[in-house]
Amino acid sequence: MHLLGGREYPDALTGVDPKFGLVHERDNEGIVVAMFEGKHVRFGFANDLKVQEWNATWKAKRIGRLLPPFLTRLLERYASYAHRPGIPRVPSALVPAPAQVTEAPAPACELRDEVAAALVDAAQTKAP
Fold it and tell me: What is residue 99's predicted lDDT score, i.e. its pLDDT?
């Protein structure tokens, strides 16, 4: 089971926007205000996620139960933290195979000589 441990966060209301009531959170955390008995809880996504069995140790540490819509908001914040930003990787099945090369490319020295000759010809045709 994936368990996301939270910690009491008494300073949650110090960063509240007075006009709109928004709690300022970092990208790697979720804060639930007044979750249980007026306690504010901070869930840190970077270090608090654990894959363990639900047992008596976890039951003793339990602060409260989080229900929708607060659970949904916390899950969405964790999903936006866990996924890398930008465009998702394109599946390899959708990438076309590279075209087969039938002729060997010309050596670099031949290409250099051809470019140099073309530059000389261009300079001579522009000269008065």
Answer: 73
Residue 114 in this model has a pLDDT that exceeds 80: no
- Buried residues in 83-120 as b, exposed as e (16+ CB within 10 A): eeeeeeeeeeeeeeeeeeeeeeeeeeeeeeeeeeeeee
Calpha distance 100→117 (Å, rounded): 30
pTM for the model: 0.57
Single-letter residue type at 89: R
Q: Is the peptide bond before 69 cis (omega within 30 degrees of 0)?
A: yes
The tens digit of pLDDT for each residue in 75-102 reads: 899 888 887 677 666 777 777 777 776 6
Type of residue numbered 36: F
What are phi and psi for residue 99, nearest 5 degrees?
-70, 145
- What is the rounded CA–CA span in Å between residue 67 and residue 32? 11
